[in-house]
From TrEMBL:
It comes from marine sediment metagenome. Residues 1-51 form the HPt domain. InterPro entries: HPT_dom_sf (IPR036641), Sig_transdc_His_kin_Hpt_dom (IPR008207). It holds the Pfam family Hpt. This is HPt domain-containing protein. GO terms for biological process: phosphorelay signal transduction system.
């Protein structure tokens, strides 16, 4: 079950991570804030607290 949860998390957040990487490269602070907040929320949903 854990494997499926992590797999689903990665599938759902792959694009978000790509966008976050691009935002960091472009120093787009608003997008960094929005995307990192969304990623943190997704991580909290699966109890990945360190994120």
């Amino acid at each position: 079950m854990i494997k499926e949860i992590v797999s689903s998390f990665l599938v759902d957040n792959t694009k978000r991570l790509e966008l976050l990487t691009e935002a960091v490269k472009a120093a787009n602070l608003e997008d960094i804030k929005t995307l990192s907040h969304a990623l943190k929320g997704s991580a909290a949903t699966i109890a990945a607290k360190p994120l």
